What we know:
CATH class: Alpha Beta
Radius of gyration: 14 Å
Number of helices: 3
CATH superfamily: HIT-like
Shape: globular
Distance between the termini: 40 Å
CATH topology: HIT family, subunit A
Bound molecules: guanosine-5'-monophosphate, zinc ion
Largest sheet: 5 strands, antiparallel
Number of strands: 5
CATH architecture: 2-Layer Sandwich
Amino acid sequence: MNDCLFCKIYRGEIPSEILYKDEHCFAIKDINPVSPVHLLVIPSVHVTYLQIFEIEDFRVLNSMYRIATELAVTNGISKSGYRLVINQKKDSGQQVPHLHLHLIGGHKLAGIG
Length: 113
Ligand code: 5GP
Ligand code: ZN
């Protein structure tokens, strides 16, 4: 057992509605949404960073993006558009050291380029 926030949510030790789950990942609402739709798609096993040597199975990444695009459809933002973001380490502002994909949409997003 570890003290990781997202691992605790996955184990049910911190209550959070699981919106979707497959054999690799689960999805929850972000507790502090930055847009009308702000969901997190999270690997069920603890993976901290994207570095290849920590990703035991690329099916996890495949699953994260598949779930996110499906959730974009079910949340009604697949036509209007959305952003998928993975923050990595200090300069990105990553708060939770358990890999996760943000699905953000539902209003006009500020440009990043
Ligand atoms: P990061 O900055 O690490 O990419 O994103 C972490 C996200 O997790 C943040 O957007 C933050 O609002 C969200 N978050 C932090 N604590 C909790 C929590 O207890 N429950 C949920 N659902 N989201 C959380
Ligand atoms: Zn974890």
